[in-house]
Specification:
It comes from Pelagomonas calceolata. With about 325 residues, this protein is α/β, with parallel strands linked by helices. It has 14 helices and seven strands.
Amino acid sequence: MAAMELQPIRNAPASPGTGVLLALQRDGVPAEDAPKVKELQTLLAADIEKYGDAALADATTLLRFLRAREHDVAAAAGMWRAAHAWREHHVRTALAECGADDATSTAGWRWRQHADASAAPTPRGRLALAHGMGLRLDAAAADGSPVLYWALGELDVAGVAREDLADCLLMRQVAHLEDALQASRAISRAEKRLVRCRLIIDLRGLRVLALLRRLGVVKRITAVGKTYFPEVTASATISVTLVNAPAGVETLWRGVSVFLNAAMRAKVRIVGRDYREALTDHAKIDDYDLLPARLGGKAPDPPLPLPVPTGAGAGLEPFLVDPSS
């Protein structure tokens, strides 16, 4: 991929700020975004110093927060601060219970979610992995973007509600979203360009009425992303491709999409069982064979959410904590 062409400020004398803007461009921030990223960087200077190595302070990550809040610098700073206060209490726990570093990996981000739920070190982690849905695939998009996969259609929404496991599955979702963020950060920093995730949501097995009755459960599991993870907002994610959609869902989307702007329509594609073209054209899958077999590839299928047995949630400690307590 060609290197980004730097665009220095013209028609004005050089200033210390000009050097900062050029440095941001060298780190992968588009020229048109550099002034606001610089403003955000300045606004968060004390916070970045406070969090030290744990701060999500590299240029393209600040750009993610900025885009997640529609380029509103004050709102982006608020999201950044809220995210870091929340991360201190939740992210490390989620990563420790749902995965581990892969010592054989040469990637900049080496954590991987356990493929076998029994490998989790805690009962809560084992339940989260057995019955949750989010993971990052080994396949990558043609542009290098990490590819996320949610087997939403297999999620036992009724069982999760019955056993009150939404909090437990939220822990897996936090680990998954952190994995997505850090994987895309690592590629962005190495290649000096903004790399964002692509999401495939598989609706095979979806029981629409059951989902609608328990929609609050799914929202509880996934809503944390929009608040604390810039990678999953509509402005920050490159594409969302829903496959195996029931006929009614696909038809409904065709009707609704005419009322959306072109940018939003371009981000979302909903298709039924004939989805290969959508995965290559919209999700930009480069090597189709690297996809799981259930998507038509040749890689082993990832573990799918299992039915939730009665009594599964008994005695679980809550994952979410109140940072103010």
